[in-house]
Amino acid sequence: MGTLSCCLLLALALLGPRAAAARKCDLQGLWRNELGSNMTLSALDAAGTFSGSYHTAVAVTNKQILVSPLQGAQQHPGAKGQPTFGFTVQWQFAASSITAFVGQCFVDRRGKETLETMWLLREEVPSRRDAWKATR
């Protein structure tokens, strides 16, 4: 995760044709980024929350990279076509760290959905004195 740039551009994998006229982002489905990471998001519930899984292709570890659970929320589901959202990933191969993502979903004129996100990874440190080096 250390070599991953601060902005992830996630593009929707081909899940079937979508009406370009609607131009409304739907977070549900399989998403892949330019580095090979992918995530699968469930449908939003009535409150705008969702769950899913994240499989990173980029990590600073010798451990086997495992698919990790995520939990998130979309702001005002159904209100606008290009919603903001956030989610956290609880890494299964790095028990002492968690990553929070925030972003927005955009739809271009052709109907292609793209997620623009930023992330912060927090690692556990032994003391408060070491807190300054715990966040990337």
UniProtKB/TrEMBL annotation:
Keyword Glycoprotein among UniProt keywords: yes
Keyword Secreted in annotation: yes
Molecular function in Gene Ontology: biotin binding
Cysteines paired by S-S bonds: C25-C105
Single GO cellular component term: extracellular region
Signal sequence segment: 1-22
Pfam families (alphabetical): Avidin
Keywords from the named record: Biotin, Disulfide bond, Glycoprotein, Secreted, Signal
Superkingdom of this protein's organism: Eukaryota
Subcellular location per the Swiss-Prot or TrEMBL entry: Secreted
Protein family according to the UniProt entry: Belongs to the avidin/streptavidin family.
Subunit-structure text: Homotetramer.
General function of this protein: Forms a strong non-covalent specific complex with biotin.
Listed name of the protein: Avidin
Organism: Scopus umbretta (Hammerkop)
Gene name of the record: Avd_4
